[in-house]
Amino acid sequence: MTAVEEKRATEVVEICRFDRLIPGRGVAALLPGGRQVAIFRTVTDDVFALSNVDPFTKAAVLSRGIIGDVKGVPHVASPMLKHRFELATGYSLEDETVAVRTYPVRVTEGMVYIQP
Amino acid sequence: MRTLVVVGNGMVSHRLVEALRAEDTEGAWRVVVLAEEPRPAYDRVALTSYVDGWDVQALTLSGSDYAGDDLVELRLGDPVTSVDRAAKKATTASGHVQAYDALVLATGSRPFVPPVPGHDLPGCFVYRTIEDLDAIRAAVEHAKATKRGRAAAMVVGGGLLGLEAAKALRDMGLSPHVVEMAPRLMPIQVDDGGGRLLRKLVTDLDLTVHTGTSAEKIEQDGDRLFTKLTNGTELDLDLVVFSAGVRPRDDLARSSGLAVGERGGIITDLACRTSDPDIWAVGECAAVEGRCYGLVAPGYTMAEIVAAQLLGRAGEFPGTDLSTKLKLMGVDVASFGDAHATTENSVEVVLSDAVGGYYKKLVVSEEDADGKRLLLGGVLVGDASAYNLLRPLVGSPLPADPAAMLGPEGGSSVVGVDALPDEAQICSCNAVSKGAITSAIHDEGCDSVAKIKGCTKAGTTCGSCVPMLAKLLDACGVEQSKALCEHFAYSRQELFQILSATRITTFGELIAKHGTGAGCEICKPAVASILATLDTTDRDGGHVLAGEQATLQDTNDHFLANMQRNGTYSVVPRIPGGEITPAKLKVIAEVAEEFGLYTKITGGQRIDLFGATVDQLPHIWRRLVDAGMESGHAYGKSLRTVKSCVGSTWCRYGVQDSVGLAVELELRYRGLRSPHKLKAGVSGCARECAEARGKDFGVIATEKGWNLYVGGNGGALPRHAELLASDLDKDTLITYIDRFLMFYVRAADRLQRTAPWIEEMDGGLDHLRAVIVDDKLGICEELDAAMAKHVENYADEWRGVLEDPEKLARFTSFVNAPGTPDPTISFRAEREQKVPVLLGVPEVVSR
């Protein structure tokens, strides 16, 4: 069994090299089936993956937001209407009944993987 | 559920409904408001400001349309014509019949028109509603269009309203004559000494004042009007405005048999109840125990006590404070308490300086056994800065010598807010005492002016007590935060100084040394903007996407384009001054066609190309840059456009080359990062076709040079720019604009437009002029050098991206599938162009 087939079996998707991610910024990636994920690397090199779709405006733009922290909790501010979402849980910091989906993310040997 | 019918829809009516709905959590009442005017209640007190922009929206009272409240029905443009008290029904002009359980008359007052022969001729107006002002404006425009020379107007009445009306007419470009029967202006509020100074001050502002006389007759004279005053003066006029006071509108009360006062007004008891127990009257139509009040504050009090009674609580009108403070044409006038010294054995202390332009009087009691004097009232003209401190002291012992309290610092150097008793009323519009405010600070934890406003309503009507609120916070030991966000305890201006002094060039170093945490979407772009202004050479040509800078930028700056609602971007090439060659137009057309972009001409004389995806942006730019175009900075907090008219090159009225100057200014300031976006305009003559006075800086040509206006803007709160300097030669003009922009970029708050920046500046426009023209702060050399450096180092940001593979690599749709289009983006056709299709259901997890 080749390495690629093994990842398929565990449904892990290879996204890109870790150093392709800019500290303090996000990128968008496409998952099988057309879903989009926003992947962020913080300045402390933590990596988070959230649905790329802003639930308030429905635009697929979260990856283009500015990331930061509220009292130490990392978040991304949607570039659309500036709603904030906690990176680790996806919950909106303005309306706790709203959350975006989060995805498990792993960095192995310099590569970023997502569990879709 | 019972039905409350409110007759009339002015400010007091709105306050009543607001108070009732806020308290009636059980929904005991449904409210039907029957209104005569065609629009929801608006701020009639601020009516004169309507002339500034003719924007009805700016006068709107928040929530006055009762949108989303099923228990309030607002019927506009359909006045009540009769009330059948026996059947408890009100009938409107349209024939609508409305049953009620309780009725509140809030019919306000009508302008009093003295019975002068000719008072009803065309060209005679009253001053009460938005419609009145629209009619006056139409007459003014007609007069200006059909005559040479300056149009003239007579304002009948030299009181508060009359001077307001005169100011409005002055702002419309007329010469107003104010005719007042009493021997002085504002006879109710000011005394003879104050009246004399007031007359001088308004005369200096080009008003002609006739006191102690009245209009004998008004006659038609060709297409103008003619009036003769009782003192023999004759005036040729284009229009006449009556603003000689108001009379309560009690017709409905009379026709339905309610008791009315001898001099008009619906008689009520202290609970505002009329002679019919199911009917109340509030505001200017009410005569509470026989007395009418022509101010909004007592009306609000009446509204609140009636709302309380409807909900089963007691309420009684406590009497009112008739103090007034206003700024008429820039002249401060205030009167409070017993301004005319009618109290027995009262003493007046007057400080009058006609040269300095102020008159201040305090009325105090005799010395009591402890040697103290009570403050009874006062009049302030020309400088009313002491008003906020003095008015709450009425009825209390003076904390210092009366003369000292009238000193130049408004007495605040002698006595602070500490000296005020707890019952002193800080906000007279909403009857909020010092005690209520300090308890909001101590007990409710209000630690900002905004929170006090929300908690107590203080400062939410006329706003004149807002500085006192800040002082009370200080006095309570609450430090008011100017902090940008939780990561920096500094204001933007302070961060600018820190970055400028320390030569720190990265956000990471700045937050490590002077902040906490990782930053956020508030501080990161603000710091990025400061870094971009401060230093354009040290890092990678100063490109906004260089290194760590890229991570700080809002999405618009990050992709050098404006994000639109479906996540696509608009592309706007710079078209300096709106001037463009056919060849460049052709390239724009070709690019739009090739990439399928929606095309629109903007209000700023440029061309928007909408619907570009992230990965299309570099290809679009490549074409535009190759054709000699550059970034229009439509995405940045930076200079957007300098709009121009046709100017002297082509226009038969133009006196200077507005296009040439607009192009020069736009190229000079392109790329300048600022706290808010900046717009400018250059008009070639006073016809102002470039609408330069609606811009952050506007230039209007005169026969002698250029006039420079600053601090205008469109947006939600539009504002006209004000004249900073006139008849300038081009070099001086550019120097002043350089300094204005650099000073603004350094000193303004985050996302603060130029208008509020100037307004909040200590000393306002005069101070700004002193800094820019007279170099009062000694910083002009530094400002000039900073702008020279900006101009020298400008480089096109798009070109910078196209020349750098690393930056180019960011313009991709998906990191793992570059070039694959975003599947959520699609378009449909409308008016022969494409527009975004509404986005589908997102992946939302609900808790």
* Helical residue percent band of chain A: under 10%
* Count of discrete alpha- or pi-helical segments spanning 4 or more residues of chain A: 1
Gap between N and C termini of chain A? 22 Å
State the name of the first-level CATH class of chain A. Answer: Mainly Beta
Runs of chain B with pLDDT <50, length 5+? Answer: 841-847
* Helix share bin of chain B: 25-40%
Radius of gyration of chain B: 31 Å
The largest inter-chain interface, given as chain pair and residues per side, is: A-B, 53 and 45 residues
- Supply the CATH superfamily name of chain A: Rieske [2Fe-2S] iron-sulphur domain
Structural class of chain A: mainly beta
Instruction: Tell me the major beta sheet of chain B.
Output: 5 strands, parallel
Number of beta strands of chain A = 11
Radius of gyration of chain A: 14 Å
Structure characterization notes:
Chain A: Keywords: 2Fe-2S, Iron, Iron-sulfur, Metal-binding, Nitrate assimilation, Oxidoreductase. Chain A: InterPro entries: NirD, Rieske-like_NirD, Rieske_2Fe-2S, Rieske_2Fe-2S_sf. Chain A: This is Nitrite reductase. The complex is a heterodimer of chains A (116) and B (847). Chain A has one helix spanning 3-9; strands spanning 13-17, 25-30, 36-41, 47-51, 66-70, 73-77, 84-86, 98-100, 102-103, 105-108, 111-114. Chain A has 116 residues and is mainly beta. Chain A has one domain (21-114): Rieske Iron-sulfur Protein, CATH 2.102.10.10. In chain A, the strands form 3 sheets. A 4-stranded antiparallel beta sheet of chain A has the order 2-3-4-9, with no helix packed on it. In chain A, strands 1-11-10 form a 3-stranded antiparallel beta sheet, with no helix packed on it. Chain A is globular. Chain B has 6 domains: 2-109 and 248-310, 3-Layer(bba) Sandwich (FAD/NAD(P)-binding domain); 124-244, FAD/NAD(P)-binding domain (3-Layer(bba) Sandwich); 321-415, Enolase-like, domain 1 (2-Layer Sandwich); 416-480, Arc Repressor Mutant, subunit A (Orthogonal Bundle), CATH 1.10.10; 492-553, no CATH class; 559-793, 2-Layer Sandwich (Sulfite Reductase Hemoprotein, domain 1), CATH 3.30.413.10. The longest helix of chain B is centred in the last third of the chain and has 18 residues, at 730-747. In chain B, the strands form 11 sheets. In chain B, strands 3-2-1-7-19 form a 5-stranded parallel beta sheet, with helices on one face. Chain B has a 5-stranded parallel beta sheet with strand order 9-16-10-11-12, covered by helices on one side. A 5-stranded antiparallel beta sheet of chain B has the order 22-23-26-25-24. In chain B, α1 packs parallel to α8 (296-310), α14 crosses α16 and α22 (730-747) packs across α25. Chain B is built from 27 helices and 40 strands. By secondary structure, chain B is α/β, with parallel strands linked by helices. The two termini of chain B are 36 Å apart. In chain B, β1 (2-7), α1 and β2 form a beta-alpha-beta unit. β8 (98-100) of chain A pairs antiparallel with β40 (844-846) of chain B.
